Amino acid sequence: MVVRRRTRTRGKGRSAVHEKPLTNSVHVVQGERVHMPVDVRAATGITAQFLVPAGPARDTLAAAGLEPVTPIPGRVPATLGFIHYLDCDLGEYHEFLVALMCRQPGVRGSTGVFIHWLPVDQTFTCEAGQNIWGFPKEISTIDVSTRGKRTRCEVRLENRPVVALEFGRGVPAPSAMGAMTLDAYTHRDGVLRRTPWTMRAGGTRMRPAGARVELGDHPISDDLRRLGFPRKSLFTNHIGELTMRFADATTISSRS
Asked: Region Disordered: start and end of each range (predicted)?
């Protein structure tokens, strides 16, 4: 059995988000031992923030036992984006993200993000994400290209276009805010889980709007339309230096 090792650099260069591990559990994925927490020592990403109608989001979240957060009446913050994991305990891979802001009904301080869809392009991280945290990962084709000041990410499943997201570059923005931790909620096989997700961003660029969404003819494309995409983004965020840490998931509820 192979142990998937992690190398942390101190001082100059890359560094982990925390010095001390959050847990010491071990999971076995494809014959390899994955020690918790899982570290992402280097990644880049681009995200676009939206406000989508509360009704469809409420239906999606209710199926998982959650409710939407509506900072503006009738609107729920949502995120589309992609991440290129360069140095990670789960290997190098691309990932696309669809997330909705949510909370547990009646639970103070439970605000987080519901990970609605999370396609990836490598099998190891797909299996690890599904089995360790309940992430809705599935194998897809993810193509990323940059021309001038615009970057485009295209996701395909079963050789059918699902979604394309094109971003404008933006201008440099302050990013020395330290580490930020939020709760990532997942719902898989009737089990609602909460995962502490810590990240630190640097080398950021932001701009108002700046993203264009194109949906294909796949059933997941129809689901994104139902949620209210495409819709003009509020702003986009390019992250040139991203580190993250994922702790073990906690089971919130289980429905047989």
From this structure: 1-20
